[in-house]
Design brief:
The chain is an alpha/beta fold and 133 residues long. The protein has one domain: Rossmann fold (3-Layer(aba) Sandwich). It is built from 6 helices and 5 strands; from the N terminus they run αβαβαβαβαβα. A 5-stranded parallel sheet has the order 2-1-3-4-5, with helices on both faces.
């Protein structure tokens, strides 16, 4: 596969939970995408400052250093990052928090715990959103 094609198939994953990180990484690979995995919001922020070649991003809501919503707010201030759709994974069911996340630019939520089918459906919706923009 040419390098440019691989870059357009990359998905940024940021989650501090090793089990969720592994599970999401595996699901992304099964869907034919290349995961780029970091352990927390600060690492995602640093990576996005220099690399915008992602087809989508999947963030945990609550992470050390920077929470998912804070990384989202940064992304929406950078023109080169605005096109990247973001799935937020969360165990939080706070409607205000969800509303604030959508206002910050989150494309779609996936509540924890989730099944393979739920992940696949949500992931495909995320990628379809990117194609529409």
């Amino acid at each position: 596969m040419p390098t440019d094609s691989r870059k357009t198939r990359r998905i940024l994953i940021a989650d501090d939970d090793p089990v969720i990180r592994h599970t999401v990484t595996r699901f992304v690979e099964l869907e034919g995408y290349q995961p780029v995995v970091v352990n927390d919001g600060g690492a995602a922020y640093r990576l996005l400052k220099t690399d915008s070649n992602f087809r989508g991003a999947i963030f945990d809501m609550m992470m050390p250093h920077l929470e998912g919503i804070e990384v989202m707010r940064f992304m929406r201030t950078e023109r080169r990052l605005m096109r990247i759709p973001v799935m937020m994974i969360t165990s939080e069911l706070d409607l205000k928090l969800m509303a604030n996340s959508f206002a910050a630019g989150v494309t779609i939520f996936l509540p924890k715990p989730f099944t393979t089918d739920q992940f696949q459906s949500t992931f495909r919706l995320l990628l379809n959103h990117q194609l529409e923009n």
